[in-house]
């Protein structure tokens, strides 16, 4: 029997023929990385292959010595005799699906992906394959993400209705924060946007990459200045809302931008007054549409709601298997 092209291991997805891992959760000798989020891109590998932007994002987050060696993907190549290519995933800046082909078999590891328009990164590119590995973060029929522009309209309406209260929006440092800023600009908000210090370097990097974020200012003012802030939009990582930093603002409207905000109980648990259902992950409708479009012989499912997608695949007459990989969730920021 021929050796499998890709094997789930405790470290992550392993390709024996090429002797490399895809998005390993532990340090390995050779890693191929789909994107820069901390649950997929970890420091300490011997050699890392990723898009140039993902490598630069990892250097920002972990330091220049985050790996023994690094190689920017610049087109199809062979790794240990296995053909490898990267294709846009539509998730965050630099994100890519990784296609590996060997002995007539092609597997595509999507990493995290999305099908909605996102001006901060290249749109998702469907890649025909024998096996498609999909995330299942929001793989339940209940998850149908609304139009991000409509969610941003809610924020703008709230700011007009309560101009005396600063609006603090929780957003992950890579991707979501810049997406919220760009949505606000597209909605016509041209005033300064204040950002938490944890977002500064990644916002600067997006600007360097030609992504217009407008007038950004640091939300590092002292308590008196913060309490005097009115009609202001402030973006911060979710972790900041459980720190003393948030207490410097007088009567803020607490908001959070996430696909999980569709679950009202989660919003209440976080003390979120204004939930914004804005996600950089695929929802149920787009996930099932993507599987039909790619039309793989096998569907492998990682990190998320595997049971519903397994049942859907069964009803569709598709071969599917859960990989039960651990360590891949939303960023713990």
Automatic annotation (TrEMBL):
SUPFAM superfamilies, sorted: Metallo-hydrolase/oxidoreductase
Presence of the UniProt keyword Isomerase in the record: no
Keywords: Exonuclease, Hydrolase, Ligase, Nuclease
DNA-binding as UniProt keyword: no
Domain of life: Bacteria
Molecular functions (GO terms): exonuclease activity; ligase activity
InterPro entries hit by this protein: MBL, RibonucZ/Hydroxyglut_hydro, Xnuc_lig_assoc
Enzyme Commission no: 3.1.-.-
Protein name per the record: Ligase-associated DNA damage response exonuclease
NCBIfam families: Xnuc_lig_assoc (TIGR04122)
């Amino acid at each position: 029997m021929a050796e499998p092209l890709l094997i789930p291991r405790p470290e992550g997805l392993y390709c024996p023929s090429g002797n490399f891992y895809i998005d390993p959760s532990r340090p390995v000798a050779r890693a191929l990385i789909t994107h820069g989020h901390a649950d997929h891109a970890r420091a300490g590998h011997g050699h890392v292959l990723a898009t140039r932007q993902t490598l630069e994002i990892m250097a920002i987050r972990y330091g220049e010595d985050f790996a023994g060696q690094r190689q920017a993907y610049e087109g199809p190549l062979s790794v240990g005799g296995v053909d490898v290519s990267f294709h846009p995933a539509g998730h965050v800046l630099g994100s890519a699906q990784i296609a590996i082909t060997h002995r007539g078999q092609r597997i595509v590891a999507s990493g995290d992906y999305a099908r909605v328009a996102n001006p901060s990164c290249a749109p998702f590119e469907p890649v025909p394959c024998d096996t498609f590995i999909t995330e299942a973060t929001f793989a339940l029929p209940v998850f149908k993400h609304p139009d991000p522009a409509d969610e941003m309209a809610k924020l703008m309406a709230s700011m007009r209705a309560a101009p005396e209260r600063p609006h603090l929006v929780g957003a992950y440092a890579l991707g979501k924060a810049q997406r919220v800023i760009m949505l606000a600009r597209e909605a016509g908000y041209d005033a300064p946007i204040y950002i938490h210090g944890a977002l500064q370097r990644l916002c600067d990097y997006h600007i360097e990459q030609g992504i217009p974020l407008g007038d950004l200012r640091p939300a590092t003012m002292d308590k008196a200045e913060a309490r005097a802030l009115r009609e202001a939009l402030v973006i911060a990582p979710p972790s900041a809302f459980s720190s003393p930093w948030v207490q410097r603002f007088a009567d803020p409207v607490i908001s959070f931008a996430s696909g999980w905000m569709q679950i009202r109980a989660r919003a209440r648990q976080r003390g979120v007054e204004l939930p914004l259902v804005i996600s950089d992950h695929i929802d149920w409708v787009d996930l099932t549409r993507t599987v039909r479009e790619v039309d793989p012989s096998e569907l492998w499912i990682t990190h998320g709601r595997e049971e519903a997608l397994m049942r859907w695949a069964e009803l569709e007459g598709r071969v599917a298997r859960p990989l039960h990989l651990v360590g891949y969730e939303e960023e713990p920021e």
